[in-house]
Amino acid sequence: MSRQELADLVNAHLHGKTGRVYELDDNYIGKLERGVIRWPQAEYREALRVVLRVGSDRDLGFVNTRRLSVVRPAGSGVADVVRPDAIVQPGSDDVKRQEFLRAAFVGVGALASPSMLLDLLAPLRPSDAPKRVGRDEIEQVRGAADLLISWGHSHGGVGVREAANAQLRWFAQLLNAQCSEPVRVELHEAVGLLGHATAHMAFDACAYDDARQIFKFSLACSEEIGSWHLRAKVLSSMARQEIWRGQADLGLTYAELALVRADRLTATEQAMLHTARARALAKLGRDQEALRAVGQADDAFVHSDPAGDPAWMAYYDAAQHAGDTGHALFDLSVQGRRTDAAGRLKAAIEGHTAGYVRSRAMSQTKLASLTMAEGDPSEAAQIGLAAVADAGRLHSRRAAMDLAELHDFAGRHARRPEVAELRHRLGTVLAS
Fold this sequence. Notes:
The protein has 432 residues and is mostly helical. The protein has a domain at 1-61: Orthogonal Bundle (434 Repressor (Amino-terminal Domain)). Helix content is 65%, strand content 0%. The protein is built from 19 helices and no strands. α1 (3-18) packs across α2 (26-34), α12 runs antiparallel to α13 (287-302) and α12 (267-283) runs parallel beside α14 (318-333). This is XRE family transcriptional regulator. InterPro entries: TPR-like_helical_dom_sf.
């Protein structure tokens, strides 16, 4: 991992554990590596142990340097005084760290380019996967999947995609290990879910071919063990990617394929899939069918019972349902048909919690575009500025594409000062 990738994974772990947003960066990781910071705060140490899979702070080379040397004022005979500039006497761990760093970096400065630095990593081999797995390994896979899912919702999928790919490749090896039949089923489901999270990160980065390949891997995992629930989730995401990239007919096929045995799915899963159908039908210009699909999604969601849903469906709450159906109706509204798209998008914005920055930002952007198209441009500009504030912090190319769409809608009212300010802000964010 690069320093920033490691920082991103630490941030994601801490966010998933505490619900708070952390902003460790590559500069902070560099200070840890150089020994500038030798004893980070407890929550950072815990996160680094989890992400780097070690058992103790000592394994990471951390040393508690708060035991400052004590200096007695000469001839005073008074109480001990700690001098601010007192030299910290290095322990054996400090000496070992310094010796290691000197040896490790001799000659590195002579390398000509960053690409040559990568050659230093060429001999590295991935760690061997265990020959037999049990529930401990399953929990590790689930933990990795949860971390990536949480990170995607709060930060977007671009930043840690390579790290996610590496995690998936390593954990996929476990599928060939020896295990009992119940463990085999759970393992395939856990690895399939990790694959789905990794594929969704590629989708969010608009790396469509990579996403499609990994989605197919996850779908194969679901088929191997007959998991209708995982199959529905993967096919739903495959449908959404195809709809997003302009292949609405293929997206409709995936959504309807997932609904072939709707009786095996929960009401929440059915709502999710009918929403995907509605989005595809709206893109295809089949307005009446799209409206009926939204109605079917609403009818299913009324009977939603989170207690009976798979754990990965927890994201699909009332705010998510309002946002997804609002997105489906958006295409009908901008074509002049009267819908309640605006009301649904507002409900989504108000309902999304702090962990779902990407969903809230994308609903805000759609609402701003819709208001710019058929409402008050001044109100649309206010909504749009809020969307920029959220979306500007994300690493999501999908969110950026929505902002570009808003920039186009705002062009109709470019002479208004507040709209001009919005377009300037949008241009700045999109340029970065």
